[in-house]
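Archive transcription. Copying these from loose printouts into the bound notebook so they stop getting lost. Printout 1 of 2:
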Amino acid sequence: MLAVNVRAIEALLDGAREVGARVVNAGSSSEYGQQDHAPSESERVEPNSLYAITKVAATQLCRLAAATYGQCAITLRFYSIYGPWEEPGRLMPTLVQRALTGHLPPLVDPDIARDFVWVQDACEAFLAAAGADLQDPGAVLNVASGTQTTLRTLVDLARGMFKIEAEPAWGTMPQRSWVTAIR
């Protein structure tokens, strides 16, 4: 994570500065840590994992490049991206794969909530940021749907779509440290 999320962004910023290119950094909602609300871009970050810390470091490198050199280095803080070519072990592909066989995967707390962003919307955000004329060359922008969806809602939807009769086995998967729930 340090090599990719910190050192690579540092090298990318250096190279982009040499040729006058814009950088659009892929940040993460994890930079905010656990929150019970949708944080604004100006809120304090409170990373609660090594991954989140490295993403904050990359964001700060971009902000430093913008402040020091006037370099355009925008950070997009993405929420839970899903869609084609997603890592197979993640929630959406696992849920669909198991649902296709009439089953549900092991599940955590049903009140765990995510703001899901379709991968095509994430791609469009990158393109928009690459061409945007922003007053702050080190801007940080959240990329989210604005809707929190609980695991319960998502599983209910999958059960209906795939006609799964089995009841969800809540709490059969260990909860991760970075999860957020609707309060």
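Printout 2 of 2:
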Amino acid sequence: MPTPIHRAARTAGTLAMAAITAVSLTGGSATPAAASQPTTAPACVSTLNVVAHQDDDLLFINPAISDDLAAGRCVTTLFVTAGDAGRGQTYWRARERGSMAAYAQMAGKPNTWTENTLTVAGRAVHRAVLTGSPVTLLFLRLPDRVGGWPLQTVQQMWLNPAAGVKALDTRQAYTRTIMLNLLTAVMVAYQPVAVRTLDFAGTYNDGDHDDHHSAAYFTYAAQQRYTTAHTITGYLGYGVDKHPANLTSAQHDAKMATFMAYAAHDFHVCRTPAACEAGYYRHYFVHSIPVTVTTTGRNVAGWSTPAASSQNTATAQTATKVADGRTGSPLIGEWATRGGKAGSWVTLTWPDVQHLGSVTLTDRPNISDQVLAGTLTFSDGTAVKVGALPNTGGSLTITFPARSVTSVKFTITKVSARTANVGLAEFAALTAA
């Protein structure tokens, strides 16, 4: 169910519009048009969707978006990544055209758009406005996980404030701070009463796409800064098949028809109703599942900023890897020091207070490097002793009386004799009642 957020409206940012040469798109074919100032959408109740890829909104959030359009609401959808999958500009640009075709179909309008540049929080954002309809699509064009793993990803930008990601078209650099400022500015400019995104309650490596969670984490954090009264709703991604179908046959058919408008432009998805029904895509047309935010046992490490005594940046075994949800993947999923042994440490720091009741530490998945003892130190000054972690990637859960803190530091006090570069595969911090 949507989570209501009630706050008094105030200005939290600015959004400046810069006109460039407009492009008229009809049926997916582009022809240059005269330069013009972007037209303003008619005044109406506004909603905002923020997703990772160009089909996420159609597969996971719909029918909420088509319902908005049917009700005459202004709809803005922001796509965080280019959805490039390492296939280059021809592919990700085709996916954008697919999104435009899908929204034109939902709005019942000709597929005619004006494209230009919007300057938001100092970043040039590609914008498409549907002619004769209050539909706006915004494309940040950041690299997605497949095209940019392991460093140039939205996930790394979320976990590490120092990490930078460059847009594929403009090569403008984005950081965690810039992304949060941009999303907040978009909310302030468009004034949505409903913000929708992907799964902000899940954790990395839970079966959903890392980009889905990253886009959702950024959106959830940004809407906390957005002070106009609104609701925030996250939607499950790849895990919807574990839930009973919740859409009617009419909603199924409408959702399929919209996706077909998109699929005509994306050769990598099912492109006919029969093909979609025959494969794993079939689950997406009978589901749209809002996430449930649990208050206990939730791993909030992914919302922290990890830091460490040392890290191996040459092999991407950085501190951020302790919060990426991966426990059994050498290099890709682990933090390793550079020659660190006893005395090494790693810290999780949050911008807001977290109510913790346990921590789970996972050793590096190799036979040599093993933590034999350590200490958890919390921002409230308390400390908890930790024993040996099971070797070769084993996990140890440490339960303690609940405490409200903004950071927890794990200091390694003893390592095995064969340890060369101590570290962790994961540092999970779990909420208490």
